[in-house]
Design goal:
This protein is α/β, with parallel strands linked by helices and 237 residues long. The protein has 7 helices and 8 strands; from the N terminus they run ββαβαβαβααβαβαβ.
Length: 237
């Protein structure tokens, strides 16, 4: 089985963190339009799906399906992650294949294409949406001017859909201040977000230049225990 329009760069065969509370396999797709300094999969950023040279190590979709089929009773679902999965025109077909196996579907996205996301949501059981900063401050994270507008349009699409989801923000001490995060939390809550997770930015896998700039700072150097009490935290050890 081939799946045109989908470039799979890797397969995590078992994860209990990519979809909290679920045992899943995670499909890593190639390509992302944004360049976040703390990205721990920078090798997935090259946009091969838009006509660039294919990466050296790709996983045929047939191999993914062959792995999943005999394990459909051992797994709760499959998460499409990346990179940015909504980059790929073949994603919906891959979702159909997974649902045909009787598995639920989760999606990790940063929301760069809200209209594409809206077309996918009826076929997705859960979404983990990355909200990276206040809308006006997005370029300091992504390097792209329209990224904030698009991400918050994607958030609105998800909130209207009723699809189960969580919103998460990776706290980067090099670009996030306490004041900004408090403002972001207030803004998200006013928009109707009820599930917000703060994640630790860690140097493992990230660009060396960003890791040097981090200088050992952590989420807890930006926010104290009383800040944003309604948000959950995933803090690396």
């Amino acid at each position: 089985m081939t799946r045109p329009g989908l470039v799979v760069a890797g397969l995590d065969r078992l994860s209990v963190t990519d979809w909290p509370g679920r045992r899943v396999a995670t499909v890593l797709t190639q390509g992302c339009p944004w360049r976040c300094g703390y990205c721990h999969h920078p090798g997935l950023c090259a946009v091969a799906a838009l006509g660039g040279p294919p990466p050296q190590d790709t996983v045929p979709w047939s191999e993914v399906v062959a792995f999943l089929a005999p394990r459909r009773r051992l797994l709760d679902g499959v998460v499409f992650s990346g990179g940015e999965p909504t980059l790929h025109p073949g994603l919906l077909g891959a979702i159909d294949d997974v649902r045909g196996l009787g598995l639920d579907v989760g999606l990790h996205t940063a929301g760069p294409w809200p209209a594409r996301l809206a077309r996918l949501l009826p076929f997705v059981d859960w979404v983990g949406l990355d909200i990276k900063h206040l809308p006006s401050r997005y370029p300091v994270v992504t390097g792209t001017i329209p990224s904030g507008r698009r991400a918050f349009e994607a958030l609105a699409v998800i909130l209207r859909s009723g699809v189960d989801h969580e919103v998460r923000t990776t706290v980067d001490p090099s670009v996030h201040s306490r004041t900004e995060l408090l403002a972001l939390g207030t803004h998200l809550r006013r928009l109707g977000v009820r599930e917000w997770v703060l994640q630790e930015a860690v140097p493992a896998g990230a660009s060396p230049a960003w890791a040097r700039g981090l200088a050992g700072r952590r989420l807890t150097d930006v926010l104290d225990a009383t800040d944003l009490a309604w948000a959950r935290r995933r803090v690396a050890a």
